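Q: What residues go here?
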């Protein structure tokens, strides 16, 4: 029972941390003159959930942090909410696929970079659906220029944060690979 309570505690902290980062990032000025270019700080909670617990828990953290972050930020059921949800779902799908298929070939940083690219692409697809104008895809190269360094930054940060977790929790679903850093173990999905 104690292990289950501890697991729930860590997942709750990841949801709360992801929500706080989501709201905090909403108050930061844009990184550039390009709308939608953000650091993706809330994705740190998603990556940690993936690295520590696995796919199901990652989905819970992602959906709850988007919902609570939008609720606290005052954007629930607005265009911003749907863009955020699309980016979160798209990046989660890609990160889970990359972690599963790239077992041993991709580090947590690589998974994060792919997630950042997928996040921007998913948001752009949602924006194109909402705006109904194909000209919005001209943003894609610029958004990808931001996705690569921010995805790298979040992946490296997640790798450092993993070191702070107690040994019983640390890297429950991932193992250390001497040449490639943190790589996923096989999941029973």
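A:
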């Amino acid at each position: 029972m104690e292990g289950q309570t501890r697991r729930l505690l860590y997942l709750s902290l990841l949801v709360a941390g992801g929500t706080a980062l989501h709201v905090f990032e909403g108050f930061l000025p844009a990184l550039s003159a390009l709308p939608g270019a953000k650091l993706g700080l809330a994705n740190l909670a998603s990556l940690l959930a993936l690295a520590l617990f696995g796919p199901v828990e990652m989905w819970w953290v992602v959906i709850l942090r988007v919902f609570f972050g939008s609720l606290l930020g005052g954007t629930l059921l607005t265009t911003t909410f749907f863009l955020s949800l699309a980016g979160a779902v798209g990046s989660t799908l890609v990160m889970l696929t990359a972690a599963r298929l790239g077992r041993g070939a991709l580090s947590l940083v690589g998974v994060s970079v792919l997630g950042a690219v997928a996040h921007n692409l998913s948001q752009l697809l949602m924006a194109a659906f909402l705006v109904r104008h194909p000209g919005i895809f001209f943003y894609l190269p610029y958004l990808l220029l931001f996705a690569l360094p921010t995805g790298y930054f979040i992946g490296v940060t997640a790798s450092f944060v993993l070191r702070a977790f107690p040994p019983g929790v640390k890297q429950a679903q991932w193992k250390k690979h001497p040449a490639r850093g943190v790589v996923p173990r096989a999941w029973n999905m």
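A: Context that may help when evaluating the design: The first strand starts at residue 174 and ends at 177. Residues 2-27 form the longest helix (26 residues).
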